[in-house]
Amino acid sequence: MLARSPHQRSRGLGRLTIKHDGQQSRLDELYQQGCAKIRLPDVHDSKHMEAVLINSSGGMTGGDLLQWQVTTDENTHLTITTQASEKIYASADDTIGRVQTQLKLAANSRLNWLPQETIIYNEARFSRSLDVELESSSQLLIVEPMIFGRHAMGEVIANGQIKDCWRIRQNGKLIHAEEFHMTGNVDAELQKQAIADGNRAMATLLLISANAESSLNPVRELLGASAAASFWNGKLIVRLLAGDGYELRNQLLPVINILNDGQALPKVWSS
């Protein structure tokens, strides 16, 4: 009997460092390996830079590993997004696809982490970690939308494994942590009223800024019954639930507009 050949796994590492030359934010270092690609579109704005992350493998499955490392220098302004939604496909075995992101913000810098949706397919096994280091004067906006199954195709996640872990430290001190775990019949869990009440799309937004509290009431005025916003200890956090990805975007975009001080979203979000 012939031995089965191992499945091919994708690997990717992208590293980006931004500096300030006294007048504007500029590229300092760019490194890309494997399926991880980084593009820097011209946004015609000398005040900030934009980076687009690309997974050239077209999606992730069990055993894949994708790593992103971003560092901002003092007084820089950087927005990071992804070329498209990240698709997490079914795993052929018990191995897990992993995305590991590290962000490091220097004093008086701002980083907007605005990836497009992560779409989880049935039988997917996926683990994501987000580790951030920032200073007291840094500003950070994180937006992480997630869709469970392809609603238009009637797909639900009858079996899967999902883990999403955030660790955010300011001046070396842990100031925010997120731990999201779902295993087994994910769709059955989403149907529970105390979890998602039947919704299959969600997003978490976090703004850490000296003036974050001023955005709380404007954001709350936009939210419906399946969303909430709160502020404490210098952090504004918003959680959204929606029936599908289209509905989620309709809720998400005006909230991002407020938290991002009216700055336009990256063009890839509308492509």
Count of β-strands: 17
Which percent range describes the beta-strand content? Answer: over 45%
Provide the succession of SSEs: EEEEEEEEEEEEEEHEHEEH
Domain count, please report it.
1
DSSP helical segment count: 3
Overall outline: globular
Instruction: Give average pLDDT, whole number.
Output: 93
Helix/strand structural class: mainly beta
User: Oligomeric status of the shown chains?
Assistant: single chain
Quick one: biggest sheet?
A: 10 strands, mixed
- Helix fraction? under 10%
The radius of gyration computed from the alpha-carbon positions, rounded to a whole number of angstroms, is 19 Å
Low-confidence stretches: 1-5
* Cα end-to-end separation: 49 Å
What are the defining features of this structure?
single chain; mainly beta; 10-stranded mixed sheet; 3 helices; 17 strands; 48% strand; globular; disordered N terminus
Describe the fold and architecture:
This protein is mainly β. It has one domain (11-270). Helices cover 10% and strands 48% of the residues. It has helices at 186-191, 216-220, 245-259, and strands at residues 11-20, 25-34, 36-39, 49-55, 65-72, 77-82, 86-88, 97-105, 110-114, 118-120, 125-134, 139-148, 160-170, 173-184, 201-208, 227-232, 235-242. Strands 3, 4, 6, 7, 9, 10, 12, 15, 16 and 17 form a ten-stranded mixed sheet that branches. β16 and β17 form a beta hairpin. The protein is globular, with a radius of gyration of 19 Å. Residues 1-5 have low confidence and may be disordered.
